[in-house]
């Protein structure tokens, strides 16, 4: 149903006054079509012929299937509404208008295009359409040629392919008419919301993809055009909720083809694969004969036992705990996990079983932003990846069952993501929850539906380096691989070199459903999708049959996993049908790779050469930074343990120089000889390079020696003479040292040149000239600060809008650290103000940076600068009220908000064993999070006899008074409420955990193990009214462990703590241990606004800042207070 204000009759002044001139036409698929202009107009035949022929040609070029009846005058009548009306009576005018719109629409103004297609601008006042109504829109940005040239230049620099029409326009008009206006347009569609709301949503959230790149660049090079972008709905193209998916796709594809995809910002032909239909020959091959997976699964499947459901509930709690305990890595600091989403993650992961075994599990990559917020399941088809996967799965189910109306049974395909949160920053967290799930379910077949998940599967779920490149990925996709479900416990077991046989699993890799979503969606790629699903259904059918067969006659009704896998592989090896599928897979993959070589440069704009190079370099740096260094002395037990662990990882980068096949004996001999502290990877890389040169009969230093070849040498045989080689190396050394100071190549000078590069790190940044950095179309202020306490330099990148940067030679910006953020002052003393920010927040809110990536770095810099200002004048406390959904309190003072953590955070139950062991051996400093817990334990428990607590929630009124009183939370919270601990930076973390003992009580237990000997056992409370609660009973013994067991100062009573702003630090303790800081970045975009220019106003805004002078530093907030 169309909205009331979307009348199908145009309402222009030139509209026909005769009601008889309009009629209603039937349309394909029985959909009602809007009222249209009479087809008796003599203008229509010529316009029809022009538009229809062009549309058909373009749809064929895009490999799109369509019915000729749909691309006809009747099917496309919504494009011809205005012919004979607003376009006037002249035939040449109508024809010329459609000619320009279909070839050079960028030269048409929005008003001209609106008259042609009856567009209406969408605004915030529009009424929302029906829940599932389909709205097609056109977005338009008006750019001058000069602005378009800047955008083209920025994209070329970033390695993003530029549309040919843009380059042609810049070349044609840059010199002749630089002020000419060009319209960049994008065609899209949405459901259940107005085009305007979708436009605002994309501007706020869409940071990736071609539209995200365009909006980001446009904001920087042409902010005026960015702000004045408009969205128009094609009035008569709206479809009701009853329209099929194929018809919705076709509507969008037709409009994109009308303008010409090469002339639009769009890089897709439109739709979401729904219009893809295989060739008849392909259908015959895929249908005959088919698998029997869906039939046999429906016949034999049973629910999994309740014990597995309970284990999956623990996995659900583990996922929730990971998200809550890692707010930066999971983005839960900004986007808390909705309860509905957690239920969806759990619900879609529950499998069914056959013969006591789970036949198949699908592993995806990451949850979409929309699915995370609204809790929609993957198989619902609301996301693009889910929609595409469901379409292909339903098609193959229909092939098997011989009917088209099959409803997919999602219980046959339980689904889990590597990243069930909207961030992919920490793969270790994702693998931790995934391996826990797979360890509970133990499926026979795992379908890995992305490059990363398949790469992890190929590495036995231990690391992401099982598959390296796209080319290598496509050589494995669709093939059945035998791998193992391994986890960290297996890695730490020194007694077991080989993987356990009962953890073996079959893995099939699929191309990610969203792969090439910014490309041309070629027929060749869709064939690869089809053949992968065909192979998966066939293998899954064999798994179901063997599981059912081998479970017959067994007392427990459960088939043996190893026997099932062996039988499945034997069946596949002897199956002629599976052999045909493999041959077809090889053929279709080869055809796609050939297409990719021929067309990728034209059809893949997102990965230009510069972008691809940066991605590869970042990956190489990440791998090098994560490699193992040799532990322990050669021949030591510690080295042996590490060799076993690295061997289990099976990372091929460590085995570069070993002779094939690589065996444990070869690795043990080579790895055991690497010098302590050296990198296995770097050592192997050097040796492999030398081995390759030697194998080719060349000298290992050939590249150096060639420049110093003796005059009488005719070939490279002189390199075999050691005397000649030594002379060449001496010549190289003399040349390297010529005209340089004697200490130029010293290690100290080389390190300074490499790390510093002439960069100056100041002890104070307040009042200094801001240092700007412009790279990759970003504008950043570099905060470089030296901290004398730890003798280290810290850098924080503050991303801002380019409008705040100096625009002319001689301009400068002065840094000021305001109570609520960072401010800038120009050379005339005027403060720059960002819209929507208070005067005490300047251009960058401090609380936003603290929540961002590496926010601890900014918090330290900001707190140090504010503390240094305190002696000059007391800083005015600004009350910041937040309405965001982050985990910070809604109202708090700037000082409380920015209290920086001064030590190590407390560990959690998910912290890796090695990290916990390291933390146990570290001396606990007063700034550390666990220090508060240790103070409470030493004060409450003493060192004489054990004391018992529980992890029950004391706020539960059903519990007895004794149980509530013996809860850890009861005593610990009272302790934390004492005045001496009020300002400790980690106090709030402990209070949060105590307020959620059901989920976070195990975190407290994990920290207790760092310094005391404890014993845990399980308890249960049964309530008279029904129900029960399981909890943990913790006995804390007097014995200390780790570094705490070594002689130390006696525990500090709360009454003896030093008073003052840093009162949590006792006067008798040493300085807190050094905390490693790393550079950070924080994106921000803003529009500058004028601020007050008076000196009095400047002083009021800085709130106590003093003029910058080179003087000795004030005490840093990292230091301890003294009496």
Automatic annotation (TrEMBL):
Residues 1-40, 872-920, 1044-1123 are annotated as: Disordered. Residues 1066-1084 have a biased composition (Polar residues). Residues 872-901, 1114-1123 have a biased composition (Low complexity). It comes from the Eukaryota. This is BQ5605_C009g05598 protein. It comes from Microbotryum silenes-dioicae. The gene is BQ5605_C009g05598.
